[in-house]
């Protein structure tokens, strides 16, 4: 809206209108700084969910913890729940979307396993519509 006022008024703005415009943008800039401080990770206002991306320190920590969890489960030979269980993990450091990586892994297993049973069940879960379309 401010941009529209600026464009429409052009050079014919009176000094009063210019003064109001400057006050408005000053308040707007101050409010945007307050919002930025409130929403920033370091500003103490909380966690910003769009700060999660491949390669960020949080993803590296999650990756290390998932690998450690998988290793502890593989080491638990006496637990019948994990006996004969295949765990496939493709972290954030491997390029590609998750659903594509899963289907590629299934195709590789079909090609590499001589006795692969085509009627095996697989569960895919995700919030992306690609999974529905691909499976």
UniProtKB/TrEMBL annotation:
List the InterPro entries hit by this protein, alphabetically.
5_3_exoribonuclease, Xrn1_N
A Gene Ontology term for the protein's cellular component: nucleus
Q: Which residues form the Xrn1 N-terminal domain?
A: 1-134
Sample GO molecular function, one term? 5'-3' RNA exonuclease activity
Q: Which GO terms are recorded in the biological process aspect for this UniProt protein? A: nuclear-transcribed mRNA catabolic process
Which family is this sequence assigned to? Answer: Belongs to the 5'-3' exonuclease family.
- Which protein, by its recorded name, is this? 5'-3' exoribonuclease
Q: Which organism is this protein's natural source?
A: Kipferlia bialata
């Amino acid at each position: 809206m401010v941009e529209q006022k600026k464009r429409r008024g052009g050079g014919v703005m009176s000094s009063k209108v210019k003064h109001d415009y400057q006050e408005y943008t000053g308040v707007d800039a101050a409010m945007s700084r307050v919002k930025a401080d409130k929403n920033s990770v370091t500003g103490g206002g909380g966690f910003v969910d769009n700060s999660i991306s491949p390669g960020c320190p949080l993803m590296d920590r999650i990756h290390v913890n998932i690998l450690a969890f998988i290793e502890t489960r593989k080491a638990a030979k006496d637990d019948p729940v994990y006996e004969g269980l295949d765990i496939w993990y493709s972290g954030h450091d491997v390029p590609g979307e998750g659903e594509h990586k899963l289907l590629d892994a299934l195709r590789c297993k079909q090609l590499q396993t001589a006795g692969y049973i085509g009627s095996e069940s697989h569960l895919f879960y995700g919030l992306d519509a690609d999974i529905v379309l691909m499976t």
